[in-house]
Design a protein that fits this description.
Largest sheet: 8 strands, mixed
Order of helices and strands: HEHEHEHEEHEHEHEHHHHH
CATH superfamily of the largest domain: Spore Coat Polysaccharide Biosynthesis Protein SpsA, Chain A
Structural class: alpha/beta
Oligomer: single chain
Number of domains: 2
CATH topology of the largest domain: Spore Coat Polysaccharide Biosynthesis Protein SpsA, Chain A
């Protein structure tokens, strides 16, 4: 009886988080959507903050991109929060700042990305603070699109759409990423997203909160805004571009590091406290069950093996899992990606339980 409970529970949870919930969110968003009251005429003062640790190869290009945005120049400043960079990052920024008063360097002690962001926000007085990474590039209208969404009095946080591109400019977003973006758009139409995007997002300065440096804004800010009675939304028209990691193996290593922080915030971040019922369902469905998908798969596989002789359903589910693993082993792209990312959630949990997570970070391999 216990084995059957494990089998049906894990199978149901996996089906819900990956298939049923996204479909239900899409339907619900069409029935009872909550539009964002955008105003493209609103032009508040904005500080764009770029946390940087040894970004010498990309920081000049990043500044050129931000200084060319289609937004009133007198309303924008760019702050490079250098997290104790040891290469020429500071030197390059200072050279540009000498000729461009909208740029300034904030040299921070080594404390990690979030600590650098907090320090920079304390140092600015603008109405809106926007954030990105050193290796990203924004479309010319990206800031306008973000700000237009923030014009809604109920909206405190908005993130844009990250488009992954190869060095030749060709799109490499992939099936899984497009699936995630569609789900994020549905959640936004329902009220608030459950996860953000570190490459392109903005927050009203009055709504900014300082969180544990190990958590990261893209995981913590959406639910923190909702806990404060505000909205966190997705603006698909605000585009950022980045190079993807060059292979599934490098993406796996990046995911392990990312999921270590996910487990930290899930287990210690009070992320399910004080949420409206509907949003709580979204958080459990999209975040908790997704982070736990590796454990659920292991439970399903073990119970399927044990129950295979008890009925054809168990045998079919076992055969399906073995087929997925075989497809991943021979290199079928979506199968290999799914298996590696799912396994990364398990490895990340073991790493987290063994040694916790640091606040500092290094650039993902091959993305500069």
């Amino acid at each position: 009886m216990l084995l059957k409970g494990v089998f049906w529970g894990s199978l149901g949870a996996l089906a819900w988080t990956h298939v049923v919930y996204p479909a239900a969110a899409e339907v619900a968003a069409r029935v009872r959507q909550r539009p964002v009251r955008r105003d493209e005429r609103w032009d508040p003062s904005v500080s764009i903050i770029i946390p940087a640790h040894n970004e010498e190869p990309v920081i000049e290009r990043r500044l050129e991109n931000l200084l060319a945005l289609d937004y009133p120049p007198e309303r924008v400043e760019v702050v490079i929060a250098s997290d104790a960079s040891t290469d020429r990052t500071n030197e390059i920024v200072q050279a540009i700042a000498a000729d461009e008063p909208r740029v300034r360097l904030l040299d921070c002690p080594r404390g990690g990305k979030v600590a650098a962001q907090d320090r920079a926000v304390r140092d600015v007085t603008s109405e809106v603070v926007a954030f990105s990474d050193g290796n990203s590039t924004w479309s010319s209208d990206a800031l306008r699109q973000l700000v237009a969404a923030l014009a809604d009095p109920d909206v405190a946080y908005v993130c844009g759409q990250l488009r992954l591109q190869a060095p030749d400019g060709s799109n490499r977003e992939g099936t899984y990423w497009r699936y995630e973006m569609r789900l994020r758009e549905a959640e936004s139409r329902l009220g608030s997203i459950t996860g953000g995007n570190g490459s392109i997002y903005a927050v009203k300065r009055a709504d900014y909160v300082e969180v544990d440096p190990r958590w990261g804004h893209d995981l913590s800010f959406p639910y923190r805004m909702v806990q404060d009675g505000r909205r966190a939304v997705y603006e698909p028209a605000a585009h950022a571009f980045e190079k993807p990691t060059p292979s599934n193996v490098t993406e796996y290593r990046r995911k392990v590091r990312m999921f270590e922080h996910c487990w930290e915030i899930t287990l210690r971040g009070s992320m399910f406290r004080g949420l409206p019922t509907g949003y709580l369902v979204e958080m459990v469905s999209h975040r908790l069950l997704r982070y736990g998908s590796g454990i659920l798969h292991l439970a399903l596989l073990a119970s399927s093996v044990a129950l295979a002789a008890d009925g054809f359903v168990y045998g079919i589910v076992l055969a399906g899992q073995l087929a997925l693993l075989a497809a991943a082993a021979v290199g079928v792209p979506i199968a290999r990606y799914y298996v590696l990312v799912t396994w990364a959630t398990v490895v990340a949990l073991l790493n987290y339980l063994r040694r916790g997570v640091p606040a500092t970070w290094e650039a993902a391999e091959g993305t500069r």
